[in-house]
Amino acid sequence: MKRPCVWKMLMAAMCVALLSGLQAQDLPRQVSIILLGATGDLARKYLWQGLFHLYLEEVGKGHHFRFHGTALTSTEQGQEVIAKVLESLSCPGDMASGHCAELKAQFQQLSEYRQLKTPEDYVALSKDIEAQVEHEGLRETGRIFYLSVPPFAYVDIARNINSSCRPGPGAWLRVVLEKPFGHDLHSAQQLATELGSFFQEEEMYRVDHYLGKQVVAQILPFRDQNRAALDGLWNRHHVERVEIVMKETLDAEGRTSFYEEYGVIRDVLQNHLTEVLTLVAMELPVNVSSPESVLQHKLQAFQALRSLQRHSAVLGQYQAYSGQVRRELQKPDSFHSLTPTFAGILVHIDNLRWEGVPFILMSGKALDERVSYVRILFKNQAFCVQSEKHWVAAQSHCLPRQIIFYIGHGELGSPAVLVSRNLFQPALPSASWKEVEGRPGLHLFGLPLSDYYAYSPVREQDAYSLLISHIFHCRKDSFVTTENLLASWVFWTPLLDSLAHEVPRFYPGGAENGQLLDFEFSGGHLSFSQPLPEQLVPGPDSAPLPSDFQVLRAKYRESPLISAWPEELIARLAGDIEAAAVRAVRRFGKFHLALSGGSSPVALFQQLATGHYSFPWAHTHLWLVDERCVPLWDPESNFQGLQTHLLQHVRVPHYNVHPMPVHRRQRLCAEEDQGAQAYAEEISALVTNGSFDLVLLGMGTDGHTASLFPQSPAGLDGEQLVVLTTSPSSPHRRMSLSLPLINRARKVAVLVMGRMKREIAMLVSRVGRDPKKWPISGVLPDSGQLVWYMDYDAFLG
Ligand code: BG6
């Protein structure tokens, strides 16, 4: 008897629940937007306008809105500020003024100011929102908290939002954060962990306003819509280099308390320029409208970035900067800042698409113009027979071929996408992009504007408006996820650490900078093109580091000597080897390098392996100067050392590596196996005139070099190119290039390091040519150059 009744009651209850559920579903939806820091600079300049824009876009599409401007400012003062800001809001140019006025009045009605300071204020805000929603018969679908506040306030605010201001069940929460997101990897991690204890990842929207710039937001759609044309071009075979640039005319005056702590790399390179870099470099997802795929591909691009070295950067500081810091931060007259206001960085990406392509990132304050752009310059191997006057922009292979994402300002004055006409005619969505009108006389990146297909947005939109709309539409790919943020800091932090004491080059600012900041890259190193002018700015802790001293240049045994502290010396030698390689490959298509073994070159190998991005390894032949008669896999083998410290880190084609054949058929270095002859034949077959481009030697404490030992005549003269020798120390059997062969080289570098070498270095500096006693003294290239690289310990003791 009981059961049907219970059943009925249950059914009735379910119906009521279902009905009320359905009713709730049917209720008009409301989104509340709470702007914290609503009276601040950013909010007044951009955020209120962005919110108004969102309202204009979304009104009548099924959502009701409420806008709560909040700050620490008292209610009265805040209301006053907000009233003024709301009054100044503008509609898009093509909207009828009557309609604009009507919508603006509605927006003003829906916006209020309130003080948000204490935990109770948050509770009250939440209650008020709930009451208002209920009162108006709406259903709350979500809350957006936009934190336009300094980051030190994030954690408190986050705690308050989480504990008392989350919307009810079924409604979403989005929390928007403004940079800086940390100062380095550690602080970014810390902040991320703290925020992560209050919010889910999908609830956080970290803003990088460059991702809201129309042209930046167009990079992926452009790549997607022009896949057919770009597929074959967007890679190392065709791209010469990529430049990602943000130049500013303004300086940091008025912001030095922030700037002093951050500097240009943290302020714009770590975020804006890196974001742009990933959009250019990432593999294009099949579906570019899928935020998840975009974010995942972006992360992969981060993972392929090659670590930066100290020499990947050039730094500058405009001359007035330290004075501004002293004034604004009340520092003593003796204070000199080392904070860079200008940086050029060379980035390489280690994947098949981009290997070897330089990505140049550059930004600076107090430069000659304000402009931001990405320039993708394509390689050009064409030679045009007809004279220039017959070149036709659309067909000539001789004109520069480039794609420019012109982010803004500059001579063009507006954002644009430019594709040189000799590349292809790009497709851009015609509803939102129009062809740029001709501007006779305007030249951009070496071409008249008319040589480009040029498109600009039909309606220019400010970055924040776009981002606010993307927050509303849940477009997470326009924001910086925790993973991406940390990946970026992983990339930048080691460089920032290594540059912490670097004295920047000082520049006067504006047009007066002339060529002072021009820089160039050779191998993996960036350096200013002009030599350093006199500058006397010792920085706050002015005790110079050993590495601050100049590399000493002198003569040793009548040949050039370079002397420095070990680290500097190795860097210099590696740079010189790379320069020789680049020159040789440019002239002859290949570079023949003969390397010694032992412990001194290990640091050099490591430096070459990790720090030399543009070394032409693919065209380099590696030879051994000498070898111990042990199997090639033996740890004592010179080849093993080369393999461990260099070969396994670089991509030298296997057939370009020439180990010495110490182990052929019989015993190790058996005369009858004719290994030395075989090596000599290989050299003769591949190295023109047996003249290596560069031979790297060392000097033993007994004056030996290669495996040519005192009192042992083998290899000191005669016809033989490669010889078997006997070493006084084990393993005794050796194979070595002969002195005559060494002396045929175009360049011989002798690396001598450590206090142990001091005595022999002194001795050899005084003796004449007597290779039987001191084989090293027999090194004097017939027509090539000899350079001695000695560290201070070896040279000065
Ligand atoms: C900000 C930096 O993020 O970007 C400023 O903090 C810089 O130093 C600004 O001036 C540049 O942005 P935009 O939009 O003017 O290129």
TrEMBL record:
Residue ranges of every copy of the Glucose-6-phosphate dehydrogenase NAD-binding domain listed in the record: 34-216
Reaction(s) catalysed by this chain's protein: D-glucose 6-phosphate + NAD(+) = 6-phospho-D-glucono-1,5-lactone + NADH + H(+); 6-phospho-D-glucono-1,5-lactone + H2O = 6-phospho-D-gluconate + H(+); D-glucose 6-phosphate + NADP(+) = 6-phospho-D-glucono-1,5-lactone + NADPH + H(+); 2-deoxy-D-glucose 6-phosphate + NAD(+) = 2-deoxy-6-phospho-D-glucono-1,5-lactone + NADH + H(+)
Subcellular location: Endoplasmic reticulum lumen
Main location: endoplasmic reticulum
Molecular functions (GO terms): 6-phosphogluconolactonase activity; glucose 1-dehydrogenase [NAD(P)+] activity; glucose-6-phosphate dehydrogenase activity; NADP binding
Single GO biological process annotation from the record: regulation of cortisol biosynthetic process
Domain annotation Glucose-6-phosphate dehydrogenase C-terminal: ranges: 222-513
Entry-linked Gene3D superfamilies: 3.40.50.1360, Dihydrodipicolinate Reductase, domain 2, NAD(P)-binding Rossmann-like Domain
Signal sequence extent: 1-24
Keywords, ordered alphabetically: Carbohydrate metabolism, Endoplasmic reticulum, Glucose metabolism, Glycoprotein, Hydrolase, Multifunctional enzyme, NAD, NADP, Oxidoreductase, Pyrrolidone carboxylic acid, Signal
Pathway info: Carbohydrate degradation; pentose phosphate pathway; D-ribulose 5-phosphate from D-glucose 6-phosphate (oxidative stage): step 2/3
Pfam families reported in the protein's UniProt record: G6PD_C, G6PD_N, Glucosamine_iso
InterPro entries given in the database record: 6-phosphogluconolactonase_DevB (IPR005900), G6P_DH (IPR001282), G6P_DH_AS (IPR019796), G6P_DH_C (IPR022675), G6P_DH_NAD-bd (IPR022674), Glc/Gal-6P_isomerase (IPR006148), NAD(P)-bd_dom_sf (IPR036291), NagB/RpiA_transferase-like (IPR037171)
Subunit structure: Homodimer.
Similarity comment: In the C-terminal section; belongs to the glucosamine/galactosamine-6-phosphate isomerase family. 6-phosphogluconolactonase subfamily. In the N-terminal section; belongs to the glucose-6-phosphate dehydrogenase family.
Record protein name field: GDH/6PGL endoplasmic bifunctional protein
Organism: Bos taurus
The gene coding this protein: SPSB1
